[in-house]
From TrEMBL, chain A:
InterPro entries assigned: Bact_response_regulator, CheY-like_superfamily, Sig_transdc_resp-reg_receiver
SUPFAM superfamilies: CheY-like
Protein's organism: Paenibacillus typhae
Protein name per UniProt: Response regulator receiver domain-containing protein
GO biological process, one term: phosphorelay signal transduction system
A Pfam family recorded for this sequence: Response_reg
Keywords: Phosphoprotein
Domain Response regulatory: 3-119
Coiled coil: none
Modified residues (4-aspartylphosphate): D53
UniProtKB/TrEMBL annotation, chain B:
One GO MF term: ATP binding
Keywords tagged on the record: ATP-binding, Cell membrane, Coiled coil, Kinase, Membrane, Nucleotide-binding, Phosphoprotein, Transferase, Transmembrane, Transmembrane helix, Two-component regulatory system
Native source species: Paenibacillus typhae
PANTHER family xrefs: HYBRID SIGNAL TRANSDUCTION HISTIDINE KINASE C, TWO-COMPONENT HISTIDINE KINASE
Protein's name in the database: histidine kinase
NCBIfam families (UniProt xref): sensory_box
Main location, first listed in the record: membrane
Amino acid sequence: MQKVLIVDDEDVLRMLIEDTLEDLEEVELHTAENGREAMTKLSMNAFDLVILDYMMPELTGIEVLGLLSEEVKAATPILMLTAKAQEGDRSRARDAGARYFMPKPFSPMELLQIVEGILGDQKKH
Amino acid sequence: MIRRSISNMSIKKKYFHIIASLITVVLLTGIGLFIYIHAEQTRMNHNQEVLQNKADTINEMAVTLNDVFFRVRGYSLLKNSNELKQAYESLDKLRDVLENYSALKLSPEEASFKEHLSTFVDQYQNVTLPKAIGFVEQDDYTSLRALAAEGNTQAVNEFLAYTKQYNMRSDKLLSDMVDLSLKRANEFTLLAFGLCTLLLLLFTLMIWRILKILIDPIVRLEGATNSLAAGEAVMIGKLHKQDEIGRLYEAFLNMAHSIQDKEEELMMQNEELLAQQDELQDQQFRLERSLGEIESMMKALDQSSAVAILSPKGVFTYANANMSEYTGYKNHELIGFTFRLLDLKNMEAARMQQIVGKLSTGGVWSDEVQLGMKNGAPVWLHMTIMPYLNDEGQVYQYILIANNITSMKNVQQKLAETLQKTEQTKIMLERSNQLNHDITYTLDKQEFAEKFIEFMNRQYAFDSSVFFLVKDQITVVRGVPQENVDRYLGSEGGDMLYRMQTEKSYITRRPATIREQGIAPEPVLSYDFYSTVVNAENEVIAVFCGTRIGYSFNDEEVNEIQGMMNRVGLAIERLFMYEEIEHGRRLNRDIVNNVNEGIQFVQMDGGMLQMNQALAQLFDYHEWSEGDLIPLEGWSGHFTRMANESEELGQFYQKAMSEHFIDSSSMKYSIGKDPLKHVDMYAIPVFRRETRFGTLFVHRDITREYELDLMKSELVSTVSHELRTPLSSVLGFTELLLSKTMKPEKQLKYLETIHREAQRLTDLINDFLDLQRMESGTQQYCQQPLNLSELVMGVIDQYKVGGTHNFLFEDEASNAEVEVDRDKIVQVMTNLLSNAIKFSPGASEIKVSLHNEAERIIVQIQDHGLGIPKNQIGQLFQKFRRVDNSASKRIGGTGLGLAICKEIIEKQKGSIGIESEEGEGSTVWFSLPVLHSPGSRHEDEPMKPSPGKYQKPNVMIVEDDYSLSLLLSEELKGKGFRVTHHYHPQQAFEQALKTPFVAIVVDLMLGEELDGWDLIRMLKNDERTEHVPIVISSALDKTDKNMMDNVEKYLTKPYPPNELTGTLQEIVNIRQGTGEVLFPDSGHTGEQE
């Protein structure tokens, strides 16, 4: 079973992502509604993918990335999901350690494809 | 030293010492001799005595022994015991004497004698005598005689012989002793004599010595005296003695010297006297010669000067020819007359007195005097008068010498006159110069006019004058009241000016006014001189008018004044020009200084020629003031240092000021830190006649634009973020719906979500547009007077219906009349209430209260929800600010609500604020200004509708069905009631205690704790509320009959609303007892709804 962590402060979006990914086989979906909760879950489990919102109260996505250790970041692909689609946001996210980037609003099918791709790569490793 | 001191001692002392020591020696020798002789004599006497004593003792022994034998014989003969007894006694006595003798100093012979005798005595006493006694008693005289013969008698005889011998020897010794003493006495006498002779000798020697010492110097003195008397030099050496003789010697020497000195002096004096005598003779000769000279001088004086001799009383006793010539009096006309004959001019009595006084005390007087000649012609004399005093100091005559200085005096006078004229000319010239100077350097017209008129008055002695500058209407007046001139210029000035157009100057003559006439007894004429100044266009620009009282103007003056006026004309033109230039300059400066942009003009060499205040403030640089030229190094360092981008600014300046820079260019820099200012600066090269002249720099403070820009991009970013989130949901779920097959329930759920998010998008966009409109100022506010408590209640009612929260409404405001935009305030209330509901998710109570506070009404909405962290309260009214925590995030919202509320409230002169404690809840309040002053509705006073002033009756509805209560209150308000809502019986009761209600409408089914009946009971049991009529509005049928007494009316739901109003109106009528319904119809009370 592969594990995916969905971090978003908006209930509706969490639900949307969950529902998008629910049909994936052998994938376990976990959610966190803020950065702090995400940190807790990341410290307890190894995930094959983290879908991380950029703008969150308390801890932003970038801040979460800053707190994660390099090993975790190397082992865990991170998909940054953000409404901030301006120039610089993408590079900032990449510098912080996010390998994938997706602007909001996004297409669930596209997300599904990307996630499938990432998880497939992970499985090979 | 000692020797010296002795020689210095006085003779008296010295010889006193010698004599004293001599006497001491004699005395001591005498005493010594006496003591010696005395001791010798004593010793001899003693020896004599000892000898005598021994002789006596031996004599006594012989006597005693004889006595013993005598007595023993007597006994033996007479047998008388008495005799025996006495013999014994004598024997004892003999023993005593023997003992005494032995005590004496004894020679050896004497000692053996004594031994012998004592042995004998012992023999005799102890042997012989007892035997003898025995024989006597036995009368054995034979034995006795035998015994006697045995030797006793012989011993005795020996002894006696010895005694006799001894006596003789001691007598001889005594006589020897006397002889010795006599011999000694003779020796002493001889010694004494010798001593005396020695002393006498010493004495004689001494006296001889004294005499020698005394007489020697006296003899020398005598010799010296003799030689002194003979007039020879005293040649005696010094005597090195300090005693009387020494001093006498010294005194004599001094005397001798002084006598010799005096003698020399006398000699010299004598010689001097001789010399003087010679000199005197010489002088006499010279005197004679001088006398001759004086005589010739007198003759000369007589020729050149007037000489006269006056008696002590001032009578002429002599006068020479010159005297007659100078005075005009003949000689005989003078002699015998006093000096008073002469007519002395300018000679006051006091001065005369002074002169006479001076002369009579011997002083010489000399002065210049003017006198009249006999024929009356004036003549100036330099006169000297000398008094001559006799031995008693009395004046016996005066000599008068006088010289004629008339011609010299005349020349002097002429000279003085010329000098005075020159002086006057000089003053005139100086004044002219001053005027020229003033004209040149005065830039103020008023000041110029003052100076000019001052000059004219001084120069031409005007009694009064006016100078009038036509264009500026400046009038300067001297010597007449200002108002006179103003009046003149106002009325007749036109005529004068008209005349001036054709005539450049004219003089008028007129009788003096009363004021000008003054105290003059005769009628006086006044002369007015009018003169104008015209410009190049021949327009009159200034008028001068001066008045002289009593005398007119000569041609010279007129010409001068005209010339002066021409110069003044030029000066005034110049002043006009200066003023125009100055005005232009000031205008330019003001413009430059009032421009918001900082402006700076820099020459090609970098010198800053001009900068304005805006720039000075921007760079906090105040070194430059108008007219300064600050070199490049003086300002550029400061400027570039001030900027945060020092290097770039420096480079820009450098580039812009270089020769090659011909197009304008610009840069941006920032300055300061807090506050940070952003400046847009551009440089423009400035050319003058195609030559590069300098560079103009303009610094524009673009901080606001910069910040706006920043805000705008931030806003765009935020808005796009805010929009993307709901859009994500809409797009995402739509796509899921389209691409997946799912159950209908899920489809429905998705659609609902899509709908909600789309709604959120719409709200967001609406709010955003609202805010945009408000901020841009395009929002229209439709102000209308209304009652805020009704409005608030209306909004609450909407939320009560089907709401999850309990609302408490507390209306403590005595004045709730405000003039606001109704819809906007409703929007605010809705926003605040929905916030309160949203952020207190525990379904707790929300309290809304109104109260007045100094001309304002305050609305408070208090919840017991999440609260707001302290550090975020301040940001709440900013756009897109929401309390950042996960709990509130879940609640959602656009984040624009409070910003909109703030905008609305502030636009209507109100204010808004939040107090909050995180976890405890928040209180949002806003205040608005009330229309009328409070007091129109007093809480404690019962409602009394008074004629002319209608007050709305208060009704309280206690009802938990909000829609019904809303319906009822609409109905009641429409009929002119004021309605207060409550749904909780306890609060309704408390409200009833505070507010006087005309009636209370009560629903019976209220809550769980208390119901309508409880409320009625409470109201009726309290004396403050027992009179208030109760109307029951209930779905229940009348059940509790007991309580019905307390109830005015029982309405059973459902009932038409107007039934309630009818009932209430009835009640009010009954209460007022008038029977007349005072309710205005609804149309009349437009403000109520």
